[in-house]
Amino acid sequence: MAVIDMPARTRVAILGCTGSIGTQALDVCRQHADRLEVVALSAHSRTEDLVHFAREYGARHVAVTSEGHCGDAVLSELPATCSLHTGPRAAEELAELEDVDVVLVAIVGAAGLSASHAVLKSGKRLALANKESLVVGGDLLMPMVQPGQMLPVDSEHGAIFQCLLGEDAREAHCIWLTCSGGPFYGRTLQELADVTRCDALAHPTWNMGAKITIDSATLMNKGLERIEAMHLIGMDIDRINVLIQRESKIHSMVEFEDGSVLAHLGASDMRIPIQYAFSYPERWSTPAPRVDFRQIAQLTFGAPDMESFRCLKLAEIAGKQGGTLPCVLNAANEVAVDAFLHDACTFTGIADVVESCMDAHDSQSVESFEQLADVDTWARERARGIISSRF
Ligand code: NAD
Ligand code: MG
User: Fold this and answer.
1) ∠ at Cα 158 (152, 163), nearest 5°?
2) Residues 6+ away with beta carbon under 8 Å from 173
3) Is the C-beta atom of 21 inside 6 A of ligand 1?
4) Alpha-carbon span 338 to 212, nearest angstrom
5) Cβ–Cβ contacts within 10 Å for residue 304, how many?
6) Which residues partner with 179 through β-bridges?
7) CA 331, 228, 210, 33 torsion: positive or negative?
8) DSSP class of residue 41?
9) What span, in angstroms and rounded, lies between the C-alpha atoms of 241 and 252?
10) What is the edge-to-edge ordering of all strands in the sheet holding 261-265?
């Protein structure tokens, strides 16, 4: 696979630097300060953290994307040498900077799509954590990707990418996309009805932002990841099998035509795939503790329960149908998850909201980013209407 040329010290932009992925990426940059230089940082609203990181890492450019926080007093504490970009396009502006080599898009939700688009357009390496970019806009983004330009950060997709290195992806028979099962593994639909926000925020193996933690509890996360994998590998969703792997030690597997199966194993630590997206094709010393496999008593496997975890089924329907339906699935889910986090929607209500929006949508083939923005707005309004009338 071709590699985009990198200077001795790679100049990094981290979009969404105050989140779970963003702060772990900063830790990777700290541990490999001789190879990585933090040049640009964006945050939506946590300007105090943004200023702190900008000073600590000597960033030359920062961006604040939430209109409500563009005038925060703390921004006056930025070093005089640091340029400040503000407003909804500010993250894209960082993606377009001349003095940046790789951009990590660690923004949450469909809000990351325009930044991912800007990175690809500028020809820089895209380290992609924001799976929603591909779920919503994969049809438009994938044809823009040059060989070796997009490095998936999502641990499963990073694993698949590595299992396919040196292989012909057309000889892959299927993908085993692993899933911890989340905090409610084994529960029936009835048992999920009274799940609370606190229950759902306690993930057994990964420590993540609130939205993806809820998506991991409903299994929507795995549904979104199947669509993400579909775009990345160019494979039908039917051949991307979800496999419960309770210990989260196998990050995914590729099964080839000859029956051989390659798996990627390692610690459940996002700093490893983040670092690889920066270091590829090199491998640098690990940013996380190593796994002693002698201490792991067993690796357990299972099939997901699509009847109880209805979001997984809905994502399968959206992935199969394609077009603008995954955009509706994603937007409705973002609104419903936010409502659940604010006690305005029940846990099982999330799937109800998503399903109602999908049922009401006439899917079209994806033609433009403007069309996707319109569909996204429609689905969000519809989801909000359903939530305010039902819950
Ligand atoms: P998070 O909520 O912890 O952080 C989100 C970041 O995005 C913050 O820095 C925030 O300032 C910024 N942001 C929020 N809304 C924004 C908007 N409208 N415009 C611009 N920036 C905005 O989220 P996270 O858990 O770090 O996840 C980030 C992305 O990475 C998601 O797409 C998630 O699916 C993906 N991902 C996360 C993990 C994980 O372990 N956390 C693993 C795999 C993939
Ligand atoms: Mg993942």
Assistant:
1) 130
2) 239, 255, 256, 257, 259
3) yes
4) 11
5) 21
6) 244
7) negative
8) E
9) 10
10) 261-265, 250-256, 172-179, 240-245, 301-302
22 lines ligand 1 (CB under 6 A): yes
The answer for residues whose C-beta is within 8 angstroms of residue 140's C-beta and 6 or more apart is: 117, 366, 368, 369, 372
Which pLDDT tens digits describe the chain residue by residue (391 residues)? 556 666 679 999 999 999 999 999 999 999 999 999 999 999 999 999 999 999 999 999 999 999 999 999 999 999 999 999 999 999 999 999 999 999 999 999 999 999 999 999 999 999 999 999 999 999 999 999 999 999 999 999 999 999 999 999 999 999 999 999 999 999 999 999 999 999 999 877 777 999 999 999 999 999 999 999 999 999 999 999 999 999 999 999 999 999 999 999 999 999 999 999 999 999 999 999 999 999 998 999 999 999 999 999 999 999 999 999 999 999 999 999 999 999 999 999 999 999 999 999 999 999 999 999 999 999 999 999 999 998 8
Enter the tokens of residue 93. Answer: 């502006």
What's the token pair of residue 178?
Answer: 């692993």
Q: Which atom of ligand 1 is nearest to the CA of 109?
A: 32
Query: Which residues are close to ligand 2, an ion, with C-beta < 5 A?
Result: 154-156
Q: Are 243 and 178 in contact (CB under 8 A)?
A: yes
Q: Is 225 in the pocket of ligand 1 (CB under 6 A)?
A: no
Per-residue pLDDT of 272-323, as tens digits, reads: 999 999 999 999 999 999 999 999 989 999 999 999 999 999 999 999 999 9
User: Could you give the CA distance from residue 72 to residue 54 in angstroms, rounded to a whole number?
Assistant: 15
The string of DSSP letters for 45-62 reads S-HHHHHHHHHHHT-SEE
Residue 225 Cα to ligand 2 midpoint, Å, equals: 7
Question: How does DSSP assign 366-378, residue by residue?
Answer: ---HHHHHHHHHH
